[in-house]
């Protein structure tokens, strides 16, 4: 797979979307001779496009605004990036203390990953503090939303800071700057959160900042926009703070004063609650009272720190290699439903766990989850976040759970592309009786194919949900050609395990064991292998139901899941 195709297939959509949303079709289209010719000749109205918004729920009442760029503009940015990929990755990898440096990989869910896994950050912090007495902790204020697109150009080509070079379109930095503005309505303030290209370009900027800071003999640590400097004296910490502020000023970035502090060491390198939860989870399945005790501990921790993803982490710790007894399962379901309604952002992990249990032969309480899903939808107006509702709808579609008329009316009123596509799909299955298509139609009719609702318009026509919008698609050269070639960004039909094996679902150790087994086993022996093995049983029926085509079952499965054996490419300049 070429770098360009990999960036389109594995780096386009935010990883937080439900697995029915994918970009593999578009990657194949954009890298074909015919598709590339259409993209090359396409001219957006007003010479720019806009992004679709997807609001990611976070603990508390916060959310993060993720973006889905228009396919034309994203492919243009991806092509520039791919053409200059080695240079950009080397620039992004020059920082000597960034733990979020991008590493290019093929055959994985994402085209880029961080150098260090989040689970190893506490160890990295502890190592960086050795021999120091003071710690400077800082955070860049609203980093992605405030990152100037021109700053990306400056980081790639410093000569763009000179007025004489502003109009030199041959400079890669200028091309990236222009492409970033063109994909978000000519706005130069901020870059879209969610794509791998934004991750790469943001790290390119901060890597230049890192290399310009005078840290002397102090140790440094950075994870995205969070910095730590371990110093010998308070005066040294103050000097580094001044140096960092100067360098950030040069890229028009600012520190968050509320998160800037100098404290004395030693300090805990981790929050501590992770270990408490892991220890408690080891006995949670032994009996119902143990599960009650587990969630008592978890709920107490969460009440003291509502801003932390404690409940999300606790749900993830319940992915284990055995089936819960029915009496234990009932307690777990009750507590998980409470957690999902208490902490925004829990739906993705919680519903994945339920799907995992059900596929492994544990009957879930459908009445409880129909009620919980409805409450998630009804509470959308309070949180304003898309993600919990999107995952709730994905679960409803997978489980064939009906949605009430009241919830259907709310779904129809939300100007949200991802939710609208799912709602229309659920309605076509007879699961949403109260959905008014005219409500969705109304807000889509006001938008154009280059605007911020291109996604819902295209998929509504592509799948026949709203044929009244067909003229909008067919009158657009690019979208019409994609439609004629069968390109889609939404899969209505997915195997049930897709809600389990994804970036926000089962932990890596389950995924690795699962992938290893299905890729090294003769398909004729699947039934024998799965018998009595609860983790791998989740593959049994689904794999047998995959139709025989030119590929065998495993190849089809890997294509569906977008997963192969890991293969990190040789583009690590710091390796």
Brief account:
The protein contains 30 helices and 9 strands. It has 575 residues and is α+β, with helices and mostly antiparallel strands. The protein folds into 3 domains: 3-264, no CATH class; 273-484; 507-568, no CATH class.
What does this structure look like?
This protein is α+β, with helices and mostly antiparallel strands. The protein has three domains: 3-264, no CATH class; 273-484; 507-568, no CATH class. It is built from 30 helices and nine strands. It has helices spanning 3-10, 24-30, 33-41, 71-83, 85-92, 121-128, 143-146, 149-156, 172-182, 196-212, 234-250, 273-281, 288-304, 310-316, 326-342, 347-359, 366-378, 380-383, 387-399, 405-413, 417-428, 437-445, 454-462, 470-474, 477-484, 508-520, 526-530, 534-537, 540-545, 553-561; strands at 52-57, 63-68, 102-106, 112-114, 134-139, 219-223, 226-231, 261-264, 567-568. The strands form three sheets. A four-stranded antiparallel beta sheet has the order 6-7-5-8, sandwiched between helices. Strands 4-3-9 form a three-stranded antiparallel beta sheet. Strand 3 (102-106) and strand 4 (112-114) form a beta hairpin. The radius of gyration is 24 Å and the shape is globular.
